[in-house]
Specification:
Length: 297
């Protein structure tokens, strides 16, 4: 019997369906590959850089843990040409930064150290907490406040926008006598400010020393009243220098600090800062002489 038209059409329909199925398979394979190829005329994207082997080799990391997220407000702002940033690290060590990012660390030692390597480090030799015999090799200028031959240290250097000079003072030696020129007061000129770090001062200043120090805007003052100069003597030094702003240091405990502040509060304004860092300029200096207490020890 001859085939009906419906049965003759069945192979054709099957062939069409099979062809469509094959086309879908081919397109499903080709299109994803084409999408991954770069467009004509555009260079292929560079491969992602390999991750470093050790995270602690990255600049600024202080530990081998994951990097911390630092709020934008914590990042130090750039300084104006007339400003200086002063951070109390502890004991007698301050980090002083200039508008051109020159860093000076005072009484640099192995125990209380700033978080960055300074460009300039000043030292005094009263105790090992005021100097080191193995300073970081990255420090450009290491300034000892003494000389082994007993002569004044006599530092006078300029680096970028910072000028540092020293004024020699005497110091008590371990035998109870006097070591001439064994300590230095360092005067740091930065921005438009003159900042004097008294070091481990053991006596009041002579008129010649006051003249050599000259006009200063900020004095970093040891206030322990025993290891350095006694309270009355230190108050005499402050009065002779006539600086508008004093920042206490070398006080070991809150008791020692309060004892000194109690003694001076009738003559000087006292302000307690919430953070150990302050940005100073000539225009922000107080009209009346003041002690600014930065958190530290």
């Amino acid at each position: 019997m001859p085939a009906t038209p419906a049965r003759r059409a069945t192979p054709v329909r099957s062939l069409v369906r099979f062809a469509a199925f094959v086309a879908v398979l081919i397109l499903g394979w080709i299109l994803p590959i084409a999408a991954m190829r770069p467009a004509v005329g555009q260079p292929a994207a560079p491969a992602a850089p390999a991750a470093p082997e050790r995270l602690d080799t990255c600049p600024g990391l202080v530990s081998r843990t994951s990097p911390r997220i630092v709020p934008a407000a914590v990042v130090p702002a750039a300084l104006a040409p007339d400003q200086a940033r002063v951070t109390y690290i502890g004991h007698s060590t301050f980090l002083i930064e200039s508008p051109r990012q020159v860093r000076v660390a005072t009484d640099y030692n192995d125990y209380v150290k700033p978080p960055v390597v300074p460009d300039i480090a000043t030292m005094n030799r009263a105790h090992s907490t005021h100097y080191t015999l193995s300073p970081d090799p990255g420090i450009r200028f290491v300034l000892h406040g003494w000389r082994d031959d007993g002569k004044p240290a006599g530092h006078d250097i300029s680096y970028q926008d910072v000028h540092v000079r020293s004024v020699a003072t005497n110091i008590r030696d371990w035998a109870g006598g006097t070591a001439r020129h064994g300590n230095s007061i360092f005067v740091i000129e930065v921005g438009t400010l003159c900042i004097a770090h008294l070091g481990h001062l053991h006596h009041t200043l002579t008129p010649q020393q006051v003249s050599e120090i000259g006009r200063v805007d900020v004095v970093l003052v040891p206030v322990d009243g025993s290891y350095t100069l006694d309270l009355e003597g230190m108050i005499e030094v402050i009065a002779a220098l006539k600086a508008p702003l004093m920042i206490p240091m070398h006080f070991f405990s809150r008791y020692t600090l309060d004892r000194f502040l109690e003694r001076v509060k009738s003559d000087y304004e006292i302000e307690f800062a919430e953070t150990p860092t302050v940005v100073l300029s000539k225009t922000t200096l107080p009209a009346k002489p003041k002690f600014l207490v930065l958190p530290g020890r």
